[in-house]
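ugh ok fine here u go
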Amino acid sequence: MFLFTTPPSRETQAAANPVVSAIREGAERTGTGFDYLLKTAQRESALAPDAKAKSSSATGLFQFIEQTWLSMVKQEGPKQGLQNYADAISENGGRLTVSDPALREKILQLRNDPQVAAVMAGALTQKNRDQLSGALGRQPQAGELYMAHVLGARGAADLIKAAASDPSRVAARDFPDAAAANRGIFYDKAGRARSVQEVYGVLAASHASTQIAATTASGSAAGDDSMPVTEIAAALQPGRAHGLIGLFSTGGSREPVSKAVSNLWTSPRANGTRTASLDGAERYFPRIKSDASTAVEGAAARPSEGQGAAVAAPLPPQRPADLSLPQAGAAQAGKPRRGPLNLSSFMLQGGDA
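structure:
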């Protein structure tokens, strides 16, 4: 039995989850960012493939309503091996229908299949991205793409523009159907109708710092070399997690993590203190000797106790004097010498129990 075990990483846990694996495959097949699709599925269904909304026809991992799902199967089905299902869908009076009720139900049940749903969600994301780019004149952010997932590309564009031009406008007045199906988004807990600016913030919050496009090995977004890759971890944003930023970047401070840590690696001074110094010659048990006759070793001259000049060449640290074994005549008057700890005193002696 091992005394210590390493807990599985998030990547290992994700690989063992078939739903997450299906989302990853859908992201790769459509060129959509895996983390964007994962956060969308978490927000929509808490990663439950058979989730069903109470206030609308939204069903499945990504909560597709019936008309949106039929539209995606009609457009993307032939590319994903669903040609027969795509051919069965037709338009009648501005709505998509399937003449055979049993086949229609079978097509709608595909929303509960994580692999099919993830591919359709990735394809819808790319479609919404193109439409929003044309409407806004810029690339949409991840949170704005999620608005398109909830409101449709046209509705998302209207919300984004309204939040910029008239932020205090009541959102439920412009989106009555969406507000009726998503009261938690358009109304607060007290029942107050949120403004378009507040609804924008609610929808964008879960997708902050989310990568919306698949990346290549070089780190640039696939299909758009000019667009910088958004950092996945919000804690790595500027001004966040100063204590860990050195682990993930080459910029920033080069000073010690803290004075306390630096003090642990600083030789005691004559007055018994361990005040940290930024001088490299006073860190890591420097080979400083008070005896002038031994002040030079090899080709490098060592600084005296009170000096902080850097050495000409690095040398291994010298064993501190207070850890050396006592020698006859070596102890100074009034200053006892301490030897290393005798571990034999802690050993159990043999004998009758």
